[in-house]
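Here we describe the complex-level prediction in full. Unlike the single-chain runs in Section 2.1, the two entities below were treated as one system.
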Amino acid sequence: MGAIQKLDEPISEELKLVRAAKAGDIGAFEQLVHRYDRNVFRIAQHITQNREDAEDVVQDAFLKAYENLKNFQEQSKFYTWLVRIAVNEALMRLRRRRPERMVSLDEEVKTDEDSMPREVADWSPNPEQQYTQAELRDILTKTIQGLPSSFRTVFVLRDVEGLSTEETASALDLSIPAVKSRLLRARLQLRERLNKYFKRRKGGDGKK
Amino acid sequence: MNCSDFLKELTDYLDDSIDARTRTELEEHLQWCHNCFVICNTTKKTIEIYRDSQLYELPDDLRTRLRSAIMTKCQHQKKA
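The structure predicted for the assembly as a whole is:
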């Protein structure tokens, strides 16, 4: 997340690397890979939910970026452009694995009711500390995997990777209201699903 | 402001991207509505937990292997 450049920087370090790579400096491109490979891997894993696919996405996204670098107009950040490529690659693989369910970022999502809070229970203080790291990872993975891919993708870009609403909209080719609406639903659905793990136990101190 | 209005603004409120007047209205609502107060806090916590979760970290050995594969393909592409 810290690697993301601010738009108002005069010429960012990122842009210098992009221009050098465009001019044929392959070492500069390698630095861009080093800068963003972890982010791309995380995004790809979240979308595809498959380790092998995520590895392929990382390779293909960077290769595609390298091949198309001359077409990168520098109107957005390189990272946003790269994320857009990676998300498309990841969705393509998800569709291949789940042909029975059409997967699209534009899918009509009628889950307003799913997003409305049903259970309002306060959580224990530091609820994540009730679980071991492995248990927590398992809970968080299972919970986010249950979201529709269109919600999951927006949540991961905005809340995990720290892209702005505008950057997320640009990377996913969505309008800003669409990003906000999906983000709200994603957040509320995750909160609802985490309730059963994190809510304060009656008369207890929050421990299992 | 009722609870449904509050929920509509929740994302902008948590992202600190609302005007001062709406913020004041939301915060007034939070003072008397315990349900929205809990939903707001637990949603905020949900975001924090995921942000800090380090799910899907790229292991160093895989990272090295992927980078080497990417750069080999880029070299081929450059020569082609």
